[in-house]
Design brief:
Blueprint (H helix, E strand, L loop, with lengths): L14 E6 L2 E7 L13 H17 L8 E9 L8 E11 L3 E10 L5 E10 L4
Antiparallel strand pairs: 1-2, 2-4, 3-6, 4-5, 5-6
């Protein structure tokens, strides 16, 4: 994701590992620029990763449309610290006539511990 512009530049250090129809797997090393005052990955970045990576999974599905966000939910379960490698896995749960639903899990690559889980609903427009 090297050629990002605007706000999406915050995900410029995300690397793709795999892509299949309706599924995208990426990874990122948590760096100082990704942290909050407590020294852990900022919750806003986590939400942005849920948004951007789920959108990529939706775009990598049958319709191929990015859609417009209708709802985004993130559940934070554990902290990621500087130097941690995280795996971000997004998959489309359902793609209907006008809405797509995706799930995103962020896990610690070494321990497998769940960092956060998110759900994203997007309006795809009329078909």
């Amino acid at each position: 994701m090297a050629d990002t512009h605007g706000f999406d530049r915050v995900v410029s250090k995300v690397n793709f590992l795999a892509a299949h129809p309706g599924k995208v797997v990426c990874e990122m090393r948590v760096e100082e620029e990704h942290t909050n005052r407590g020294g852990t990955m900022h919750g806003g970045l986590t939400a942005t990763l849920v948004d951007v990576i789920s959108t990529l999974a939706i775009m990598n599905s049958e319709r191929g449309a990015p859609g417009v966000s209708v709802d985004l939910n993130v559940t934070y379960m554990s902290a990621a610290k500087v130097g941690d490698d995280i795996v971000i896995t997004a998959h489309v749960l359902k793609e209907g006539r006008t809405l797509a639903f995706a799930n995103v899990d962020l896990t610690n690559k070494v321990t497998g511990k769940m960092i956060a889980s998110g759900r994203h609903t997007k309006h795809l427009g009329s078909s």
